[in-house]
Write a structure and sequence with these properties.
With about 170 residues, the protein is of the alpha/beta class. The chain has 5 helices and 6 strands. β4 (about 80-85), α3 and β5 (about 115-120) form a beta-alpha-beta unit. The longest helix is centred in the middle third of the chain and has 17 residues, at about 90-105. It binds guanosine-5'-diphosphate and magnesium ion (MG). Magnesium ion binds near residues 19, 20, 37, 38 and 61. Magnesium ion (MG) binds near residues 19 and 37.
Length: about 170
């Protein structure tokens, strides 16, 4: 039997950037044009095989609305990894992503692995990719462009997160 470890990861970001859509696409390979807004938070699990072991990802999907913001620390405080998502079509959501990254760095788990995820890459790019990747370089983050709609980089972003966790 393959050794297995469980890791909790969390998705943070403005509402409607596609957090739930990314999780559903990865876990169920489904995409909905009218994805229901998330209430509070929910979680799904998916096992990602590695060479010597497997990683059971416990994926916490949070609601982006302001009124749920105070709940976020409950979900990210014990997370080993975070996907901070914004909408590449919407500049305002990039600002919010930077806010969440600061939150994670100051209040998250020590050594939390942070991915900045520019979702909706199938739409017009109103946030500059060079600026975003430069921001990641300066802050020691990983940068991905994804589309939950086309599936672009969706499996890659989650499997790459899983591969960051050292098996001990
Ligand atoms: P959340 O609030 O961050 O969880 O966002 P949702 O997953 O609920 O998605 C909000 C809306 O954006 C829904 O209408 C989705 O169908 C749409 N959406 C999500 N991801 C993408 C994407 O990659 N491309 C496009 N064009 N639309 C997307
Ligand atoms: Mg949602």
């Amino acid at each position: 039997e393959i050794p297995s470890m469980q890791k909790k990861i969390v998705l943070l970001g403005d509402s409607s950037v596609g957090k739930s859509s990314l999780v559903f696409k990865f876990v169920k390979d489904q995409f909905f044009e009218n994805q229901e807004p998330t209430i509070g938070a929910s979680f799904l699990t998916k096992t990602v095989p590695q060479n010597s072991h497997e990683v059971k990802l416990q994926i916490w999907d949070t609601a982006g609305q302001e009124r749920y913001e105070s709940l976020a620390p409950m979900y990210y405080r014990s997370a080993s990894g975070a996907l901070v998502v914004y909408d590449i079509n919407d500049k305002q959501t990039f600002k919010k992503a930077k806010f969440w990254i600061k939150e994670l760095i100051s209040n998250g788990e020590n050594g939390v692995i942070i991915f900045l995820v520019a979702n909706k890459s199938d739409l017009e790019h109103n946030v500059d990719s060079v600026e975003a990747s430069k921001y990641c370089e300066e802050n020691g983050l990983f940068y991905f462009e994804t589309s939950a709609k086309t599936g672009h980089n969706v499996v890659e972003v989650f499997t790459s997160m899983a591969s960051q966790f050292e098996y001990v």
